[in-house]
Amino acid sequence: MVSEYRQCAGGDGGQAMKRRHIILGFIVVNLFLVAGVIYQSELISISVSTLPELRVRTNLVFVVTNQVKPNESATETSGTARFHWSQLETNDYARLVENLGEIGCPRATIRDIVLARVMDDYADRIWEVQKPMQDRFWEFVAGGVRWNDYPVGDAVESEVNALEKTRRETLAALEKILAEPPKPFEMPNAPAWSFLPEDKRRTVIAAYATAEAERARFEKALKAEDADEKAIRAEVKRSVELRDLKVRSTLTPEEWTQVQARLNPSARWAHNLPGVALSAEENQAVALAKIETNRELPLPPQKDPKRSDVEKMRADATRQKMAEILGADKMREVERAGDGTYQQLRKIIRRHSKPMEVANQAYEVKRIVEQQVRSIVSNPIYSAESKAAAYRALREETERELRRVIGVEVWPTFVRYGGDWWKQPGVVEGGR
Predict the structure, then answer these.
(1) CA 166 vs CA 163, 176, 179, 289, 420: distances in Å
(2) Radius of gyration over alpha carbons of the chain, in Å?
(3) Which DSSP category does 270 fall into?
(4) In CA terms, which of 37, 103, 356, 376 is 20 to 30 Å from 22?
(5) pTM of the full predicted structure?
(6) Per-residue pLDDT tens digits for 108-125
(7) Please, which pLDDT band fits residue 98 given cuts at 50, 70 and 90?
(8) Which long-range contacts link 117-126 to residues 24+ away (Cβ below 8 Å)?
(9) Which of 265, 270, 285 is nearest to 325 (CA)?
(10) What is d(CA 48, CA 70) in angstroms, rounded to the nearest whole number?
(11) CA distance 59 to 51
(12) Are 317 and 334 in contact (CB under 8 A)?
């Protein structure tokens, strides 16, 4: 029995020993696994701590995403300026349409946003008016009181009707605004740029349109109570400089010179010269000559005593250059066209639907009379009485010739509006 017992005990002891070995093995393996996890975490910590700072730029700020110590916030530096819808918000619905358009919002989207805003705003206002009665709904129902029998029911209904009417009017006005497409940009002095190739002309127009949009934005900013006028004016100036820089870099030197000549006021020197037939080449040559003369003889300040002398020098130099360009005959036409008497003659003749050659002939009479007057004045042998007699004879001859040239039909109008130069030769007009 004992041997059997030992045999059985020995058998049970072997099984227990095996179980103990298995348990110990599991424990050792788990210890190795734990040690491996700890070691791996240490490696990750070391690798992260040795990496350089990583900065991620969003559309708002620069954010440092690591190296942040406990209880310290991430470092932020200024990036792109933040955009807030509050910059667009306004109680003026028409202004809201403009604000949304300025940030590039499509027209259809603007319509959805603004009309929905109107509906929401008026719904809130109507609800505030109706709320006292809505709160007592069950009281009215239980008591059998009709809506209009409520002491202030009529007043509430009248106010609601007024709000609904205003809402309809506001929506109609906005629909009219939204139905109108935005006004396209109009290029100032467009003819001055028309000679450019199409691609360059489009580039120039785009540069001017951008500058104009910025100017409008700056002008709006000036209306703010805390506006920094000096800074805003500097931004406007900078915008114009960038525009001109873009245009200059787009054009060749020859194109830029041509544009400057076309934009110069002297380019329109012949606009008020009726009756002068100038070719494009003559017009341009005179304009460039005027620009050159003005550049060579800059005018002193307005109060400078030498200003009148410089102005006379300019006029003489310009006239000399014009005579060289146009020739004697056409130069006389230019001088005639600049005379107020000739311009008045043309108006009188046009009023009676007569040929403009009649005005030319009448002015030629004036020119001859002026020559005769100078001859009489400069004649040293004429006494005062002789000069007076000569002026009377000249006046009678002038009237006969003018009647013949102008005609009986036009004569009364000429006598009334043609001036006094022919009535008293030798006397300064207005001096009696």
Answers:
(1) 5, 15, 20, 64, 66
(2) 47
(3) T
(4) 37
(5) 0.47
(6) 888 888 888 888 888 888
(7) confident
(8) 117/93, 118/93, 118/167, 118/170, 118/171, 118/174, 119/167, 122/163, 122/164, 122/166, 122/167, 122/170, 125/163, 126/160, 126/163, 126/164
(9) 285
(10) 16
(11) 25
(12) no
Task: Please identify which residue in the block is written with the tokens 């705003």.
Answer: 121
Distance of CA 423 to the CA centre of its chain: 55
Beta bridge partners of 63: 56, 76
Angle between helices 107-134 and 153-179 (to 10 degrees): 180
Q: CA nearest 394: which of 425, 428, 363, 430?
A: 425
Q: If pLDDT is split at 50, 70 and 90, which confidence band does 431 have?
A: very low
Report how far residue 85's alpha carbon sits from residue 60's, in angstroms, rounded to the nearest whole number. 15
In the chain, what are the domain boundaries?
2-78, 87-179, 190-263, 276-338, 348-432
Q: How many CB atoms lie within 10 A of CB 339?
A: 13
Half-sphere exposure of 112 (CA within 13 A, CB side): 5
CA-closest candidate to residue 57, choices 74, 80, 82, 73: 80
